[in-house]
Each structure stands twice: as C-alpha cells, then as structure tokens.
Design a protein that fits this description.
The structure holds two protein chains of two kinds.
Chain A (H helix, E strand, L loop, with lengths): L1 H6 L9 H5 L3 H4 L16 E3 L2 E3 L1 H22 L5 E6 L4 H19 L7 E10 L9 H10 L3 E6 L13 E5 L13 E6 L6 H11 L3 H22 L2 E5 L4 H13 L6 H5 L2 E2 L6 E3 L7 H10 L20 H15 L3 H9 L6 H4 L15 H8 L12 H4 L15 E2 L6 H9 L5 E3 L3 H5 L7 H18 L3 E2 L3
Helix pairs in contact in A: 4-5, 5-11, 9-12, 9-13
Chain B lengths: L14 E2 L6 E2 L1 H18 L8 E5 L4 H16 L5 E8 L5 H16 L3 E5 H5 L3 H8 L4 H19 L4 E3 L4 H14 L2 H6 L4 E3 L5 E3 L7 H10 L15 H16 L3 H11 L27 H11 L10 H11 L14 H23 L21 H5 L4 H13 L1
Helix pairs in contact in B: 2-9, 7-10, 7-11
The chains are: A alpha/beta, B alpha/beta.
The structure holds zinc ion (ZN) (4 copies).
The site of one zinc ion has 7 residues of chain A, from α4.
Chain lengths: ~475, ~400
C-alpha cells in the first residue's frame, strides 16, 4: 500500500505542514504496531524510537526540510536571489538536492506562482586531483535527473589566479631560530606563474602537510572556499550545505578539538552570514544519517561514496576519523548524543569580537587577537640563558626583514587563526598555500562604525605592508 | 649519535616533550614546565603579595608537584605568599590512610604547615560509612559535595585568601568535552575559568590549568618527588571515562589537542547570560547555597534519616516528597552538627585582625617595646600611644610620615 505512494513524486505525499509540525494531542497518541503518523499502516522504519510507514516517513522528511529552510530564512535577511545547493554527491547532499528541487516545484505551484528563490543551482567541487577513483559524471547525473543545473569547480582551481585570490602564501620557516619555530609564521606573498600547473601545486600542497589531520582540515577549508566562490560567481545569495545532524555533531567535536572554538558558531551554525555576499544555511541539520539513508532508498535517490583521506583507516588515523568513530559510538551508547550536541551548540552565539575580526588568511574564518601570544606563553621554547629574543622574533609586526636573497617576507602570524597556525607551523618550509582572504587585505572598505574602522585601519596597514611583497615565484 | 636539546642547543636531549614533541634536556624541561606555570599565575593575576594560599594536597602526583612548584616559584619570583598544605581525609581505608602519610612526609620535605580536615570530624560520616549506607553507585556525589565544602572549612580554619588545586590541563579538557557531549552550555562556559569562587569568600584556582598530566608525572619522576599513585578505590563517573579515553586518543593523534581544546573552550564561553545567582546562604550551616538548604546539608539529612537518596533526588520537589514520605523513619543517628560557617568566618576574621595587629605593632619603630597598645591609634598615624606622646621629637615625625606613605 505504501509502496505505491513512494513511486509518485514527493509533493503528492505532502500534507499540510502545520498539521505535521504541531501534531495535535490526538495525533500524538500511538496505535500499537502501527505507523505513528497515519496509524493505519504497518511501519517500515524506526527513527528515534518512533515508527513510520514509508509514505509518512518521506512526508515527514519533506516537512522537516521545509521547516528548517524557512526558519533559517527568517533569521537572516536575504533579498530574493538564486540559491546554490552544495553537492558532494554523498547521501546527505543528494537528499538535500532532491528536497530542494521538491521545495522549488511546490513553491512554483503555490498561489503566488513565484518561488522565493529565482533559481536552484547545484555546486560541486571535483576532487579527482586527490581522489581519482570518484566518478564525477555520476554526480552531475544526480543533478540532471532532478532537472537542476550543476556547476563544477575543480579543487586545483583554488590555485588559479583571480580577483578574489590575487596572491598565495609561501611559507618561509627555515630561517627561524630553532626552538622558536612556533613563535612567528613568516611567508612570502607570491603571485603564481604558469610554469607550475594548479594541479601540481595542489598535489604538492597536500604532500607537504604534516599529518592526515592537517590534510583533512585543508581539504575542508579549500572546499568551503571554492563553494563560496562558486556561489558568488553564479550570483547565488544563499548556499545550502548538506551537513546532517550526525555530521554537525562530529564537526563540533572535531572543530573544538582542533582549537576552532572561536569560529565554530560560523562553521556549524544553522545559518551564517560570515562570508561576504553569500549566506550559508544548513537545512539538513535535523536529519540523522539513518533518516537520510531511508529517505534516499525510498525516493530512489542516487548518491555516491565520497572518499576521505582516512576512509577505512584505523580510528587514530586523524582527528576527523577519530571523532567520527567516537561520536557514532557515543550516540550508540547514549542515544540522544547527536541531537544533544547539535541542539546546544547551535544555540552558541558567536562572540562579539568574532563578528569584527579579521578573516584568517588561510581559512577565511575570524582570527582571534593574540592567539599566538597565548600559545607561546604556554609552550615556552626559549632557553633559560637567552634573555633577548632571536633577531627574527624581535621584529615587530610592521617590520619587514629582508632575506639574504633580497626577497622580503611578511609576518603573517596575526592574520592566521589559531587552528591554521597549527597547520602552517608543521608544514614543510616553502609550501605554497592558497590564500582564502588575501583580497580582503588588498581591498579597502568604506568606513563603517567605530569598530569596523579599527579593523579597517589594521587592514589598511596590512595592505600597505603587503603591497611591497608582490612577487613572482621566480623572482 | 646523541641528540641535542632543541631548546638550549647544548645539553643532550633526554626526553620528548609531551606537549610539543620537542626533544629536550632535563634542565630545559624543568625550566619550561615551571615557567609556563609562572606565566599562568602572572597572566591571570592569581595572587597578590601577602596572600595566604592553601594547596589542596591529596598526596597524589598533581598536588604533590603543585606544592613543590608553588614553593619553588614563590621563592624564585618573590610572590610573597604564605603557603599551607590543606588535606581532606575522606575516610576511605587503605586509599586515604596511605596517601595522607605521603602528605605528612611532604609537609616535612617542603617545610610547609599542614592542616587535615576529615569528613568524620566535620560531618560524622566517613566515606566508608557513607558507601555502607548508599552503596557504590552515587557515592561520588557525596564525596564531591563534601570535599568542596571541607576545603572551604579548612581554608577558614587557616584564614586563607586562596586555595589552589592540582587540576591539570587534561582534567579541564576532559570537562570541556563532557559538557560538549552533554550539551551543557552554561557549564561549558564556566568550566574553563581558572579562578572560581568557593564559599563566595575564598577564591580557588588551578595553576596547572595548562599543564599536561604526562608532564606532571614526568616532572615528579625526574625530580624524585614523593607521591602516592593509587586511584581512589571508589570508581569515578563512567561518562567521564568516555571523555577521558577520547582525549587520550586525541592527544595521540595530535599532542597539542589538549591545549587546543582548552583554547576552544575559552573561546566558547557564553558571554551574554553570565548571570550570577544572588548570594544566599544555607539556613542550617551558612554555606553558600541557592536553596534554603545546601547540598551537603541535604545529603547529611538523608544519611541521618536513613533516606540517602534524598540528596541525589532529581529535583527539589522530589527531595521534598522523599522527606515527607520518610519522615517517620528513625534516625540512623550519627549526628554531628557541622560547625556553622558564620562561626568559622568570625574566627577567621578574628585571626586576621590579630595578625594585622601584630604586623602593625612591628611597624611602630619609635618605641622598641612590641607591646604597645595599637588599638588606641584612632588617627591612624601608625604609631602607638606612647610614641604619640613623643611625637614632637624629629625622628618620630619622620617615622610618622613613612608610615603614612606606606599605608
Ligand atoms: Zn503512515
Ligand atoms: Zn584559519
Ligand atoms: Zn636544554
Ligand atoms: Zn548547609
């Protein structure tokens, strides 16, 4: 009986959202052995100790998505715009694309016959440079089958020069005094030249990183960055990220473990306006992986397996891998762990300072003041006998020390977030990183309130400093 | 080929530093470990000169190293602190007896005065007798509540300004993770605070907040410190066990993770709704409490009435119901009425005044006699009454000026 309905499109199964969002007392009553919603059909799945038949389950998912999306919309003011759905091809983002396509169809069929979103576009980051086994054709097919246009950007595009990324960060570390490695991060800001392909650059970046944790983190950073750029380019004012509740819980724990507490509210929040011109929503936050798997199965939604650096590796392979196995285990033993972590942490407001912070040169997230000073007070690396600091460290942030070969280098410590400092300090010297927000330094903004002025003054000083570092790789 | 120390580039590296992975020598390890504690103390302004500071001493590695390092730093940097060892005897046979012996040896080794307060003496109940009454399931609740209060009682008996405890970075990171898993946002904000108010009167702090457990053990080992290394025989909270195991794995994957978590925790403090509850005191014992009866008094009441579940009741109403239902039950009757906090505070105040009087007596250099009655110094010149008589003398005048300038 239920099978028939799942064959039809999602909207035919819709019931009035209001009735489902706020079930009446009568509806809450359970009929033993029957679906919790319709109470007449034998259930097919148990989600959070509730039994659903196929049709009611799919319908519940549709309503849940719609509710999450409109709640995010209510919390942010976005004019009518195009919307991009980030599509990795994994189960969650594929389900999200399906649900969004359904949402758009319903909107167009509604009384106003006009959706609040001008158009829906899927955005995909092609990772084949690192994971050649993924069939990206399958991923565009997911979009095509839902009649949605799919824009693709390649991971290595992060090294293609454009207005948003005019310069890259080339680490200079070998010149620092030993034992003082962690006190300052120095780099050349370089333009790319064409003698090295972006692909090669990307591969060499990942092979220069010190650990699987660093590689994982870098990959996440680059993907987010590219999706934001892709959305801006497609003139989408809204970007949907497909993080499921399970994924968000895992992310919260791993972000916290990597020292990203300051930027965490922006990175997992239901909605975030941190990036210029693009608002990020996470409408899959109330879905757990199990729900997504059943939804995809019953709506015949295809998805692919998205590989990671640590797929199939033991749990201690990286922080990401470890956290994933831990959160799933904890959720198994204490069944509400995932939803508890998500619910509370999404209440966490970003601190005021964070809203006015400079964006990190590497990841684009807010940078705390004096993060490095905090660290060096607690990881003392100077010997007892040495009173004065080694020469390189005695330079204030505005000084521009000269290298022997005539190149200049910048002290970028203050514009790299605490967590990215971890990556940078352990990466091989000479590694070139894509700059997430180099454009921020080169662009000066119009004056705003007093707080913004301070930031701008700082940015202005940095910009002046950086202008003199415009170098070509082969200089 | 022996490796050189990555810090001094001179001596031979003998260890890999758990916190940073650097290969360093013995001396550099001591130096960086101690300096980071010093930085923590200075950056957070934990003490002021003349403070009387009690070191919560259990005889375990953390508090033993804490006592040693506090004494070392106090001498090295002239903090000007009066240090005391303050121990709580929970009355756990086998475990506590041996660890208290260690504390007593520490007292001699470090030359610090020691005060031991016991549950038995304060409340009439030892942990062994509590476990006998409540079983092993909730005994940690009792122990935690009683210990907290016992330390405050001890602090008042010594008239301390401050208590330091041996909580280390691993403990703090673990607590942050636990509050994250439990979704406890207010606690998540509070648990990273380095100074907490105890009785609302005596501050408590954790100078080891950023010190790795592994390094504390390493320090104790390399300094040959005398400590007691058995865990409490009554097992701790199981949920904490999950967090602990996860933290150990994280530390393995990335040694800086413990510090990174604390860094995250500090950044995740809930800024806006830090609304301190209004200070109220327990009707029975005068301890700081947001309810009519403090947690310790409720637990004691439960023990006395033979309803030990009372204190671990889920809500205040539940507790009231339990009380009403079981009120007919006969008292198990160990009844020691805990000394009222007002009394303790009063005694502490009196001790303070007495000390101040002594100090001020010495300040009067006009007369060599130390017995001059200072109470009559109502114009606050810092001179005793007999010296005031001879004020016209030039030397007395200059003395009066210096005293006024000093105050
Ligand atoms: Zn049904
Ligand atoms: Zn960053
Ligand atoms: Zn050394
Ligand atoms: Zn009380």
């Amino acid at each position: 009986m239920c099978d028939k309905t799942t064959e039809a499109s999602l909207e035919t199964q819709r019931v009035s959202p209001k009735a489902t969002v706020e079930p009446s007392q009568y509806e809450r009553k359970r009929v033993p052995g029957m679906c919790i919603k319709c109470k007449v059909i034998k259930p097919n799945v148990t989600i959070r100790r509730s039994l659903y038949c196929k049709a009611c389950f799919v319908r519940t998912c549709v309503v849940k998505f719609r509710t999450a999306l409109s709640r995010s919309r209510k919390n942010t003011t976005v004019p009518r715009t195009k919307l991009m759905v980030a599509l990795s091809g994994g189960p969650s983002s594929s389900a999200m694309l399906n649900l969004m396509a359904d949402f758009q169809r319903m909107e167009l069929r509604g009384t106003e016959a006009q959706s609040r979103y001008e158009d829906i576009i899927a955005g995909h980051v092609d990772e084949s440079v690192l994971f050649p086994d993924v069939q990206d054709s399958l991923i565009s097919e997911i979009a095509i089958s839902l009649s949605i246009e799919c824009r693709i950007t390649k991971l290595e595009d992060v090294f293609a020069t454009n207005d948003e990324a005019p310069l890259f960060i080339k680490l200079v570390q070998s010149t620092l005094a030993p034992g003082a490695l962690k006190d300052k991060i120095c780099a050349h800001l370089v333009k790319t030249n064409d003698s090295i392909s972006s692909k090669k650059r990307l591969q060499s970046l990942f092979s220069s990183l010190a650990s699987a944790t660093d590689r994982e983190e870098m990959l996440d950073i680059i993907k987010t960055l590219l999706l934001i750029r892709l959305a801006r380019k497609a003139e989408c004012g809204v970007l949907l990220m497909g993080d499921s509740g399970t994924r968000i819980a895992t992310k919260i724990v791993s972000l916290a473990s990597r020292g990203r507490g300051f930027s965490l509210p922006f990175e997992v929040g239901a909605e975030s306006s941190w990036f210029d011109n693009v608002v990020v929503y996470r409408p899959m936050r109330d879905f757990i992986m199990k729900e997504i798997a059943f939804f995809n199965m019953w709506t015949k939604q295809n998805s692919v397996v998205v590989p990671t650096f640590t797929t199939g590796a033991p749990k201690r392979a990286s922080i990401g891998r470890l956290t994933e196995s831990f959160v799933i285990g904890l959720d198994h033993d204490f069944s509400s762990t995932v939803s508890t972590i998500c619910r509370t942490m999404q209440k966490l407001e970003p601190r005021k300072q964070a809203l006015n912070s400079l964006p990190c040169l590497t990841c684009g997230m807010p940078v705390e003041n004096d993060a490095q000073a905090w660290r060096s007070r607690l990881t003392v690396s100077k010997p007892l006998a040495v009173e004065a600091e080694p020469t390189i460290q005695s330079n204030g942030s505005n000084d521009v020390p000269s290298d022997e070969d005539g190149l200049v280098r910048a002290d970028i410590t203050d514009v790299v977030c605490y967590s990215c400092q971890n990556i940078l300090t352990s990466a091989a010297s000479g590694t070139t990183f894509p700059g997430a927000t180099v454009d921020h330094f080169l662009k000066s903004k119009g004056p705003g309130d007093a707080k913004v002025d301070i930031v701008n003054a700082k940015q202005e000083a940095l910009r002046k400093q950086i202008e003199t570092f415009l170098l070509n790789d082969n200089e | 080929m022996p490796r050189q120390c990555e810090i001094c580039n001179n001596a031979r590296a003998i260890l890999r530093r758990p916190k940073t992975g650097q290969r360093i020598c013995n001396e550099c390890f001591f130096y960086v470990f101690e300096t980071e504690i010093h930085n923590t103390i200075v950056d957070n302004k934990l003490f002021k000169p003349g403070d009387r500071v009690g070191i919560g001493a259990s005889g375990g590695k953390d508090s033993t190293v804490l006592a040693y390092v506090m004494k070392t730093l106090n001498n090295r940097y002239n903090y000007g602190l009066d240090l005391y060892l303050l121990s709580v005897d929970e009355g756990i046979s086998g475990y506590r007896d041996d660890s208290l012996e260690t504390v007593k040896r520490n007292k001699e080794q470090y030359g610090l005065p020691l005060l031991i307060v016991s549950y038995e003496q304060l409340y009439g109940w030892s942990m062994d007798s509590i476990v006998e009454a409540v079983g092993r399931k909730n005994n940690c609740t009792f122990c935690g509540v009683f210990r907290r209060q016992a330390l405050d009682r001890g602090a008042l008996m010594l008239d301390l300004d401050h208590i330091v405890t041996g909580h280390n970075a691993d403990d703090v990171a673990e607590t942050i993770l636990m509050n994250l898993f439990r979704g406890d946002l207010p606690r998540l904000g509070r648990c990273t605070e380095i100074v907490t108010a105890g009785d609302g009167y005596i501050g408590r702090s954790k100078p080891f907040k950023y010190a790795y457990e592994k390094e504390i053990v390493m320090y104790a080992y390399l300094k040959h410190l005398d400590y007691f290394s058995t865990e409490c025989t009554y097992s701790p909270n199981a949920y904490r066990g999950y967090a602990r195991e996860f933290l150990k794995d994280l530390e393995f994957v990335r040694p800086s993770a413990i510090l990174d978590i604390i860094h995250s925790g500090e950044a995740m403090q809930v800024a806006s709704d830090v609304q301190l509850p209004t200070l109220a005191h327990c009707e029975r014992c005068g301890y700081i409490s947001s309810n009519a009866l403090c947690k310790a008094c409720i637990l004691l009441e439960g023990l006395e009435r033979g309803v030990p579940k009372l204190g671990i009741a889920k809500s205040a109403r539940h507790a009231q119901e339990l009380l009403a239902n079981e009120s007919a039950m006969k008292s198990a009757g160990k009844a020691v009425e805990p000394v009222h906090f007002e009394l303790l505070r009063g005694k502490a105040q009196a001790m303070r005044e007495q000390r101040q009087m002594k100090e001020q007596q010495q300040e009067c250099h006009d007369c060599t006699a130390t017995s001059c009655a200072f109470a009559c110094d109502d114009d606050a010149t810092g001179l005793c009454s007999s010296s005031k008589e001879t004020r016209r003398c030039a030397c007395a005048d200059s003395n009066a000026e210096t005293n006024a300038a000093a105050s």
